[in-house]
Amino acid sequence: MEAAIAGLVAAFFAASLYLMMSKQIIRILLGVAILGNAVNLLLFTCGRLTREVPPIIAGDAMVPDGVTANALPQALILTAIVISFSFFAFLLVLAFRAYQELGTDDTDQMRIAEPLGEAGPPTGY
Amino acid sequence: MATANGPEVDLALAMITVPTPLSDWLVILPVVIPLAAGSLALALRRRIGVQPSIAITALALLLLVDVALLLKVLAEGPVVMVMGRWLPPFGIAFEADAMGVIFATAAAFVALFGAIYARAEFNTTERRYGIYPFLLLLMGGVSGAFLTGDLFNLYVWFEVLLISSFGMIVMGSEKAQIDGAVKYALLNLVATTLFLIATGLLYGTLGTLNMADIARITPTLPADTPLIGIAALFFLAFGMKAAAFPVNTWLPASYHTPRVVVSALFSGLLTKVGVYALLRTLVLLLPVQAAAWSGIAAWVAALTILVGALGALAQSDLRRMLGYLIISGIGAMLAALAVPSEKAVTGALFYAVHSIIVMTALYLAAGVMARCSGGSFDLRRLGGLYGASPLLAGVFLVLALGVAGLPPFSGFWPKLMLVEATLEAGAGWLAASILVGGFLTTLAVGRVWLFAFLRGGPETVADGTSAFTATPLGTLEIRLSLWVPLLVLTLAIILLGLFPAPLHVLATIAASGLIDPAEYIGAVFGGAP
């Protein structure tokens, strides 16, 4: 089961890397969204996949009987989902503003901060 | 404690039964103070007048608490507090060791003076952009990153400081800022995501996220445990945060776009968090695995130094030149990863403190220089500043010699230690690249001195004419807000250069605690195995 999910994670990573290497901001953002999901699946798989056994300890025992579901990856993923969602929202607004202000969504043409063909520093006076 | 329908439960097996000593609460105060003050500043965002007071008071308090924590750590060793009283490694631990507290104190020091400078940088209307709430939240994230003892918690603090920095970098919404912010935000987000991937894989391999626990387990693992790839992922992720070559391009693309005080704070705080995390993960947690990569780390360090210094030489914009100087300094610190001896790590920690102060001060000085010459940072338009302000000329000269690593200023000692350590390890070419980088840096900053201070005026003004007049800095309040931070930071550079012994002792303690983690582990787990 882990192997199958690992393959799925690999496919997610491949798709997100492919999209992030694009020049169009909106494609890069789609890549970022898929990357976030890839990482969430990865975290989930790293906690080992088990059936949905709640970690309930019997009244007369000190430890649970048998293997129970691992709660930690779920806590990690919950945190990661919240963070990646808020970042994605910020980046979406930023990209839209960049499109409005700079008139392009092509990263090659975003050269305001680092203009092309600048003169070098002065060599003497 | 007997429950209604069960046996006697021994809580001591799972929880810490004695309350945390009151003095140990000091370890979370550096996070609580900025977050609380940040929320307050956010709630009072319409009361523009009180915002600077909130921030400056909170940051001064933060600095005091950090210094108190530093003294406590020096006296008693690492201070630990576990959230929710769960026994480690189950509870999220906050652990202040010497390295973390040194970084946190230096960060609080520059943040305080950055907040004072921001009073002049942002006029009352512009304070509505929210510089003070963002700065306080950023400091909460930075302090948390330096003091946490849990790897996933470190990721969370990274995200806290990152989202605050996004808010700061677009402050003003100019075209160039949005352009820079796109590159800064995307590449930093990818870097933190890589960090999360590495953390997840490490958890999958070791089953723990507590740093002390990881440091305890890794030496006992069989040799075929797949950790080298994870160490490489950490190196890539934090290298990207620290702007190491070849993943440094986001820094020169963005650090010159925000307000100069924002650049100053970023240069002091953000890349150094990356360096801190590199030292923490690769020297403390995965030393054996990192050693397998040390050859590559040496190349990365050398190329980062040289690319940074050469990039600085090629710039005519003062702020962009400073961006490359940050990169060059990061390279010098990375040399400690290539030869992780105690002396090298000591040098890197000393260099980090020096770099935090000197880079912040240089950006602030650049801001004052631009104000004197009508707002331009271009070497062609600067000039005549020696006549305008001999004090500024002196300050800039101290900072320039400091960043280049010349005695008697603070950059000299860590470079000496790093060169000595690399020579001892037989990496002569790495020592050579540190020295060549220092020489190129001297050329770059010397040229600024030549054009901005010694030349009579901007490019078209002939020497000896009095056509150039400096722009006045403004009211007394503005002048104080500009000069006090600049002078205090410059004084720190001079004092650290003249009296390096105390910081050297601190850095040595921190480095030995990093290389031999017994004390770090013992503080979390007590005497128990």
From TrEMBL, chain A:
List the keywords (alphabetical).
Cell membrane, Membrane, Transmembrane, Transmembrane helix
What membrane topology was assigned to this protein in its record? Answer: Multi-pass membrane protein
Record's Gene Ontology CC terms?
plasma membrane
Q: Where in the cell is it found?
A: Cell membrane
- Predominant place of localization: membrane
- Give the residue spans that cross the bilayer: 6-21, 28-51, 71-96
Which InterPro entries does the UniProt record give?
A: CPA3_antiporter_subunitC, NUOK/Mnh_C1-like
Q: What protein family does this chain belong to? A: Belongs to the CPA3 antiporters (TC 2.A.63) subunit C family.
Q: What is this protein called?
A: Na(+)/H(+) antiporter subunit C
Organism source for this protein? Methylobrevis pamukkalensis
Q: What is the lineage of its organism?
A: Bacteria, Pseudomonadati, Pseudomonadota, Alphaproteobacteria, Hyphomicrobiales
Automatic annotation (TrEMBL), chain B:
Q: Could you tell me which residue ranges the NADH:quinone oxidoreductase/Mrp antiporter transmembrane domain spans? A: 149-441
Highest taxon in the source lineage: Bacteria
Where does this chain mainly localize? membrane
MF term (GO), any: NADH dehydrogenase (ubiquinone) activity
Q: Which GO terms describe its cellular component?
A: plasma membrane
Q: Where in the cell is it found?
A: Cell membrane; Membrane
Q: Which residues cross the membrane?
A: 25-44, 56-75, 98-117, 129-148, 154-172, 184-206, 226-248, 260-279, 291-314, 321-339, 351-370, 382-406, 426-450, 480-499
Give the way it sits in the membrane. Answer: Multi-pass membrane protein
Q: Does the keyword Transmembrane apply?
A: yes
Arranged from A to Z, the UniProt key words for this protein are: Cell membrane, Membrane, Transmembrane, Transmembrane helix
Keyword check for GTP-binding, yes or no: no
Q: Which GO terms are recorded in the biological process aspect for this UniProt protein?
A: ATP synthesis coupled electron transport
Q: What's this protein's family per the entry? A: Belongs to the CPA3 antiporters (TC 2.A.63) subunit D family.
Protein name as catalogued: Na(+)/H(+) antiporter subunit D
What organism does the UniProt record list as the source? Methylobrevis pamukkalensis
